[in-house]
User: Fold this.
Amino acid sequence: MNRANAHSRFIRPRSIAGLDVTAILPRAQRVVRLYYAVLFVLSLLQALGSLDRSLSPGNALWPVAWAAHLGITGVLFIRALFIAGALAAMLKPEQRWARLLAFVGCLEFNAFSNSFGKINHSSHLWVVTALLLVFLPKASRDRRASGHEYLTVVWYCQAFVLLTYSMAGFAKVVQAVGQWRGGDRYWLLSPEALSAHVASHFIDMDHGTTAGNAIITHPWLGFAVFLPAVCLELGAFGVSFVPRLHRIWGVGLILLHAGILSVMGLNFYPAMLLLAVLICGSPFAAPLFAARGEPGSVFQKLSSPIDLGR
Amino acid sequence: MTDATQNSTASSGKRARLLGLFLPAFLLCYFVVGVARMGKTEFYPIGSWAMFSTVPNEVTTYRLRVTGIGVQPIAPPAYYGSQQGVLTAPVKISTVFAIRRLGSALDRHETQLAEQLRPVVERAVLPEGATYDIVAQRYWPIEKWLHNRYSETLVASFRAEPRRK
Assistant:
C-alpha cells in the first residue's frame, strides 16, 4: 500500500470507507457542479433584491466592516462579488480560485444581509459548505488517492449540514431541562409548547397563518408534530454515518422546513435547496437513476419483485 | 515508480493528512463554539442554531410606537408590527429583533449599544421627523394572540434623527 492510500484511509470516515471510489466520484462531482449552479441562482435572487439598503458602521458584521464607510459603492461591490464568485465556480468548479471566490462572495453578501439588527440563518449553511468545498483536491496522478480526498470533503459538507440540525435539537433539549427544573408552565413536553412558539411569532409579525392558528387553538395538534420534528433534528448528525438514510432524512428535513413555512410563514428556501442538493442528492446513497445495466438504483430496487426471504 | 510520481504521491499524502486533521477539527470547533455562544451574541458565521429552543412562557418584549410626525400627534399611536397609518412597509423579523435589542439596551442602561441601534431602527421603520416611544409589553403569548391581554410600560421616548444623505 503506498503512502497516499495509507493517509486517505486515515482520513476516510468509516461510513464511506468501503465504497467504490471510481463509481462514486463522478456522482460526487455532479453534486458539486449542481451545488455551484444553485448557488449562482441564489446569488441572482438574493443580490438583486432590496437594493436600497446601506450599511451603518456600528452594526456591520466583521466581514463587511470595511464596506460600511464606502456607502452604496461598498454594497454594490459586495453584491457583484457574490454573483461573480458563484458564476466563476459554476463555470469552473474544478478550479480552487473559483471556489475560493465563491466562498468569499457568499461570506461577504451574507454578512451584509445580516448586518441589520438580527443574524438570520437561512443561508449560513451555504457560507460554511462553500468554505469546506475550497479544500476539494486537484486531480492528481494518483487518481485513487485524490478521489478519496474529494469524497471525504463532500462527506464533511454533508456532516456539517446535518450537524447544525442536531445542534438545533440539542439546544431544545438543553433548554427543556432548564425550563422543567425551573418549574415553567410551558416547556418542550407541554402540549402547548408549539402553540406558544407560534403565538409568540405571530405577535412579532402581527399576522398569522391558517395552519398556525389551528395549532394555537388545538395544542395537541402541535404536540403531535413538534416532538417528531425535534427527533428528526436530533438524529440528523448520526445519519451522516449511514448513507442509505441520507435521502430519506433529507426529505424529512425539507418537509420540516415546509411545515415551518406553512405554520409560521418562515421561509428557509436556501436551506431547503442545500438539503436537496447535498443530502437528497447524496453521492454515497444508492443512485436514484442508474445507467443501463448498472445495479443498485433505488428505482430498480423498487421495481424489482419483493424478496420475502426464506 | 519514477521520482516525479513518488514526489506527487508523497505531497498528496501530506495534504491528505492535513485535511484529515483539519476537517474533523473544524466540525468539533464549530460545535463547541456554537454551543458555548448559545443565548449570547453570535460570532458570524458560527451559529448556535438554538432556534425556537426556549418555549415562551410569560414574556417581556419591546415594541416601537409612533406618536407623531413633526408637531402633528398620532392618536392612537401606530405600533410597528400592526402596520397601519404611517407605518405601511412590510414587517421584517430583523427589525422586530433590532427593536427588542434597543428596548433591552435602554432598560439595562447600555447607552452605547442603544445609540448604535437607534439609527438602524429609525432608518428601517420611521418616516422623517417622527416622534416615537419604546415600550415594554408583558404577556402570555397564547392569551395575547387569542384575547389581546397584556400590560405595557413606557421605556423611553425619542425624536428620529435627521437622515444622512
